[in-house]
Write a structure and sequence with these properties.
By secondary structure, this protein is of the alpha/beta class. The chain has 27 helices and 14 strands. Helix 5 (about 120-130) crosses helix 8 and helix 11 packs antiparallel against helix 12.
Length: about 775
C-alpha cells in the first residue's frame, strides 16, 4: 500500500465542541473506597461462588462423616485423685519430707506431668502386660482410621524384658501415653485421671492401676530421699565435729596471745571519742573560715569594710565630729585664707581626729589578725588529736577483726553441727514411716456407654467447618477477583456513572455467521427491534434502549458526537456502537457511524456493507466524504462510514486537521455521530479522537476487564481533556447467580417490561429537535 499523505493539523480548523456540564471533576483521579456493603451483597457473593462453597462443604463433611463412622467405640475409665501440696510434717523434719517454699501451682502442674510420664506408663504397661494386647501394639495411621501390625508380633508366653521386646513395646507405650487424660478440678486439690480404651473393662482396670502405681511411686521417691538424706547427714556430721573443735581451739589461742578481753567495750569508747573530736574539728574549721574572710579584708587594706568597724560607737562619734569640723573649715576658708588663726585651729582639730580614727582602725585590724591566728592554731590542734584517735581506733579494729572471724566460724560450725545432729535423729525416726499426700477419692468403674465417637457433635462440627471454609474460600476468591462486575462497582470504584447493562448474548452477536457476516442487530435485514436474537430475547433490545435513554438524559444539550471506546481489546465496543446507532435511528434520528479503528476495523462486517470507500480515503483526498457515507441495509436513518484500507500510520492520519474538519461536517449533517475507536491502553488513537468528541462512552466487559485497566483508561481520557459520559457494562450474564440485578429479570421487572420507546426518551428527543 502506498504511503498516505496527510495534512498537518490546523488549530483554526479543529472541531468546535458544544459546551456540556462536566459529569465528574476530571481532577479526581483517585477513587474513593468502596461503600458500605449490605448483607444482601454478601449473600450474592456466596450464591455466585456456590459451587466452591458446595465443593468445600462436601469434602469436609464427607471426611468428617467417614472418619466418625469408621471409628471404633471408645470407653473411658476415670479415677478421682486428691493431691495435697501440703505434706505431712513428721517430727518437723521439713527438709526430708516437706517441700519447703513450694509454689502450689507449680507443684500441681509437676504432678500432672508425672501422671503422664513415660516412667509411670512403663510401670503400668509392664504390670498389666499391655504390650501383648493388639489394641496397644498395633501401628496407627491417618488419625487412627486404620491400624497395621508390627513386623514381629509378641507371643502370650513372651517373658523377655521390655528393652528387647522391640517395636510393639514402643507402640504400646506411645498408645498408652496418648490415651491418658488429666483434668484438674478447678479450685480444689482434686484431679480426674481418665484412660480411653476399646475395652470397657480394660479402661477401668488401667485407670485404677495407674492411680495405685502413682501413689506407690510417690512413696518410693520419698523413701529413697529419706534414706539418702540420712546417709548424707551421717557423713557430714563427722567432718563438722572435727571442724568445730579446731575452730574453738584457734579462737582461744588468738584471744590469749593478743590479751583480748573486752574488745567491744574498748571499741565503743574509742569510737565515741573520735566522734566528739570530729565534731569539734568541724566547728574549728568553720570558725577558721569566718576569721580567714575578715583577715583577708585586713590584708587588702579594707578595714572600713569590716562588719565591726562601722558599728563601733567610738568610731561613729569620731566620724561625726570629723565631718562637722571639715564642714566648718570649708565654710571658713571660703571667706578667709587658710592661715587665718581660726582656720588653723580647725585644721589642727581635724588632723587630731583623723589620727584618732586611724588608730582605731589599726587596733581593730590587729584584733582580727589575733583572732585568725588563734583559730588556725585551734584547728591544727584538733586535727592532730583526731588523727591520733583514728590510729587508736584502727589498732583496736585490727585486733578485733581476726578475733571476730574466728568467733563467727566457731558459731557457724556449732549451729551446723547441732542442726544436722537433730535432723539425723528425725530422719532415723521417719525412715520407718509411710506418709503420702496423694489418695484415691473415687476408683474407676466399668463404663456403660462409649464416650467416642460423638456422632452428632462431629457431624455438626463438619457442617459448621465445611460451610465456614467454603464461605471463606468464596470471599477469598471474590477478594482475588479484581474485575468490574456490577454497576455498583462502576460507580463506587471508578466514580463514573453507569449508563447501562448489556446482556452477554449481545456481545456474542459480534461473531461471524455462517455467511461470513456479523449477526449483530443492524445486519438482520429487519427493523432493529425485530432482529432474530431480539425476538427470542426482547430484553437484549431493551438493554440498548436503556443505554440510549441514559445517553439522551445525561446532559442538556444532548451530546451529538460520541466516541465509543474501551480499555482493552475484545470488550464489545464495535457491537455496542452499531446497536446503539440502530436504537438511536429507531427514534427517527439521522445517525452515522464512523469506523476510526484503523488497526482492526469491524463496523463494515457488523453493518453488512463493503469496506470501501472508507474514512481513510476521505482523509487522503481520494474520495469525497459524501461518497463514503453508506446506508445500513434494512435500518432506516442509519448510515456508516467504513474504515477503508488500513493505513501504515493511523495515529498520524487521525492527528491531521482534516480529521477534525470531516467530523465537524458530519456533526452538522447528522443528529448523532458515533465514532468507533481502538482500545485506549493499546494505542493513542482514541485519545486523539477524544479531543474532538462531545463525550466519551467507555465500554467495559463484565467479569473480564480488570479494575486497574479501566482506571488507567479513565486517567488517560482525563489527561486528554475528554468528558467521560459514563460506562456501558457489556457481556453481562444475567442468569449468573449473585449478579446484583438478576432478580429483576427473573421476576419480570427487567428488559421484558415493555417494547415501546421510553417517555423520557421521547421528551429528550423532542427537546433536542427543538
Amino acid at each position: 500500500m502506498d504511503e498516505i499523505e496527510i495534512q498537518q493539523p490546523n488549530p483554526s480548523n479543529s472541531l468546535v465542541k458544544a459546551e456540556f456540564p462536566a459529569a465528574l471533576d476530571p481532577g479526581i483521579l483517585e477513587v474513593a473506597p468502596e461503600g458500605f456493603r449490605h448483607l444482601h451483597d454478601y449473600l450474592q457473593i456466596i450464591l455466585k461462588r456456590r459451587w466452591a462453597v458446595l465443593t468445600c462443604f462436601i469434602v469436609v463433611f464427607s471426611s468428617v462423616a467417614i472418619g466418625t463412622l469408621k471409628q471404633k467405640p471408645i470407653y473411658q475409665g476415670q479415677v478421682l485423685i486428691e493431691i495435697n501440696p501440703e505434706q505431712p510434717n513428721v517430727l518437723n523434719f521439713k527438709e526430708v519430707l516437706q517441700i519447703s517454699g513450694v509454689d502450689v501451682d507449680s507443684y500441681r502442674e509437676t504432678q500432672y506431668k508425672v501422671l503422664q510420664s513415660r516412667t509411670l506408663a512403663d510401670r503400668v504397661v509392664q504390670t498389666l502386660h499391655l504390650y501383648r494386647n493388639p489394641e496397644f501394639y498395633r501401628n496407627r495411621g491417618l488419625f487412627g482410621l486404620y491400624n497395621t501390625d508390627p513386623e514381629i508380633l509378641p507371643s502370650k508366653s513372651d517373658s523377655d524384658p521390655p528393652d528387647v521386646l522391640g517395636e510393639y513395646y514402643r507402640n504400646s507405650l506411645e498408645h498408652f501415653t496418648d490415651s491418658i487424660s488429666v483434668r484438674p478440678v478447678r479450685r480444689s486439690n482434686l484431679v480426674e485421671v481418665a484412660f480411653y480404651s476399646e475395652d470397657r473393662k480394660l479402661a477401668a482396670r488401667i485407670a485404677n492401676q495407674l492411680a495405685n502405681d502413682y501413689i506407690e511411686q510417690n512413696l518410693q521417691v520419698k523413701w529413697d530421699e529419706t534414706v539418702k538424706a540420712s546417709e548424707w547427714l551421717q557423713g557430714q556430721l563427722i567432718g563438722l565435729k572435727a571442724k568445730l573443735e579446731k575452730s574453738e581451739d584457734a579462737l582461744q589461742a588468738y584471744a590469749q596471745a593478743n590479751s583480748i578481753l573486752f574488745v567491744e567495750e574498748k571499741k565503743n569508747l574509742a569510737n565515741e571519742r573520735m566522734a566528739q573530736l570530729q565534731t569539734e574539728y568541724t566547728k574549728a574549721q568553720s570558725d577558721r573560715f569566718q576569721k580567714e574572710a575578715l583577715y583577708g579584708l585586713v590584708q587588702e587594706g579594707k578595714v572600713q569594710d569590716l562588719p565591726g568597724f562601722l558599728s563601733n560607737r567610738l568610731v561613729q562619734d569620731l566620724a561625726v565630729r570629723l565631718s562637722e569640723l571639715e564642714r566648718d573649715y570649708a565654710q571658713l576658708t571660703s571667706t578667709v585664707k587658710p592661715d587665718y588663726p581660726k582656720a588653723v585651729g580647725l585644721k589642727n582639730q581635724i588632723d587630731t581626729l583623723q589620727g584618732a580614727l586611724e588608730r582605731q582602725k589599726k587596733a581593730l585590724a590587729q584584733n582580727i589578725v589575733d583572732e585568725y591566728t588563734a583559730a588556725v592554731a585551734n584547728e591544727k590542734y584538733l586535727a592532730d588529736a583526731l588523727e591520733g584517735q583514728k590510729k587508736e581506733v584502727n589498732e583496736i579494729a585490727e585486733r578485733s577483726i581476726q578475733y571476730n572471724i574466728l568467733k563467727r566460724e566457731v558459731d557457724t560450725s556449732k549451729q551446723l553441727y547441732e542442726g544436722l545432729l537433730q535432723r539425723l535423729k528425725e530422719s532415723q525416726v521417719s525412715a520407718g514411716l509411710k506418709a503420702s499426700n496423694v489418695r484415691i477419692v473415687d476408683s474407676a468403674e466399668e463404663p456403660q456407654k462409649p464416650v467416642k465417637p460423638r456422632v452428632l457433635l462431629n457431624l455438626a462440627l463438619g457442617v459448621i467447618v465445611g460451610l465456614g471454609l467454603g464461605i471463606g474460600l468464596a470471599f477469598f476468591q471474590e477478594y482475588l477477583d479484581n474485575t468490574i462486575k456490577t454497576p455498583d462497582e462502576v460507580e463506587n470504584l471508578l466514580r463514573l456513572p453507569s449508563l447501562g447493562v448489556l446482556p452477554s448474548m449481545i456481545a456474542g452477536l459480534e461473531a461471524k455467521g455462517t455467511d461470513g457476516k456479523s449477526l449483530s442487530l443492524a445486519s438482520t435485514k429487519q427493523t432493529p427491534q425485530l432482529a432474530p436474537a431480539v425476538q427470542t430475547n426482547p430484553q437484549y433490545l431493551e438493554a440498548f434502549r436503556s443505554l440510549r435513554t441514559s445517553i439522551l438524559l445525561s446532559a442538556n444539550p444532548v451530546p451529538k458526537l460520541l466516541l465509543i471506546t474501551s480499555a482493552l481489546p475484545g470488550e464489545g465496543k464495535t457491537t455496542t456502537t452499531v446497536n446503539l446507532g440502530a436504537t438511536l435511528a429507531s427514534l427517527g434520528n439521522k445517525v452515522v457511524i464512523v469506523d476510526c479503528d484503523m488497526r482492526r476495523p469491524a463496523c463494515h462486517r457488523s453493518t453488512g456493507v463493503q469496506n470501501k470507500p472508507g474514512f481513510v480515503q476521505c482523509l487522503t483526498g481520494q474520495v469525497d466524504l459524501v461518497e463514503a457515507i453508506l446506508p445500513v441495509p434494512g435500518v432506516e436513518n442509519l448510515h456508516v462510514i467504513p474504515c477503508g484500507p488500513i493505513p501504515p500510520n493511523p495515529a498520524e492520519v487521525l492527528s491531521a486537521s482534516l480529521t477534525f474538519e470531516l467530523l465537524r461536517r458530519l456533526r452538522g449533517e447528522f443528529e448523532y455521530v458515533l465514532v468507533d475507536s481502538p482500545p485506549l491502553l493499546s494505542v493513542a488513537d482514541s485519545r486523539i479522537l477524544a479531543t474532538a468528541a462531545d463525550a466519551v462512552v467507555l465500554v467495559v466487559r463484565a467479569f473480564s476487564t480488570p479494575y486497574d485497566a479501566v482506571r488507567r483508561a479513565r486517567s488517560l481520557l482525563y489527561g486528554a481533556g475528554a468528558r467521560i459520559l459514563g460506562v456501558a457494562l457489556n457481556d453481562v450474564d444475567i442468569r449468573r447467580e449473585g449478579y446484583s440485578y438478576s432478580h429483576y429479570y427473573r421476576y419480570g421487572y427487567g428488559y421484558g417490561y415493555g417494547y415501546g420507546s421510553h417517555p423520557s426518551e421521547e421528551s429528550a428527543h423532542q427537546e433536542e429537535k427543538s
